[in-house]
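User: Can you predict the 3D structure of Outer spore wall protein RRT8? Sequence below.
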Amino acid sequence: MSQSSGVASSLQARAQEVVKEDLAEAKIQVNDAAKSGSYLYPIKGIFYFFSHRALWKPFLSRIGPTLAVSAGVTVPMFIFTYLPQLAILVWVNGPLAVFTTVLLVLNESSTITSIIARNFIMQDALLDTFDGTLVARGATGVVKEGRELQPGSDPIGKLGKVLKSPFDRFSPKAILRYLIHLPLNFIPVVGTVIFILLQGRARGQSVHDRVCPPLL
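Assistant: Sure. Here are the predicted structure tokens for Outer spore wall protein RRT8:
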């Protein structure tokens, strides 16, 4: 009994810590994003990626397996979880629940697919593309903090041995953060959007921390 209460207390303490961190960081992130225009970076990144064919190499051999995993996860998720979640969300979102439930199931499927693909299929490709982009932009000094560089004809060809990987296994704190954010989907319309943004911020930070450690 005492052991169970100890586990519950530990989870509660972790949950409170996560909520405090996210509230404090959210205020800073919103303010900084509004001033810097960083919300445009994903769009710029998409155009940059598609206009530089050399960066495609790491992904080409992994497209098939990744799509197979995505379909193998997303289809069963819609078959088995869409209607139960719709029945719950319709009470808070009304007719809009049809659309917000789709977003929720897609996000859940994306999370599961991401865990599988990131750890078993796409890990090296993501790392090579991230570092290759930095090399293409002339930030070789930054890349050298995390891996060796060698002579090559293109950004990907210059990438050598990895010295420091940004990809850690999902920690208990990361899983707890996901579960805490999940109820945001009960907020009509904006809740699902906020949930996706918070998850994206957390995942992106884990990659950037490898070459740009957070200031203390």
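The longest strand covers residues 159-162. The beta strands are 147-149, 159-162.
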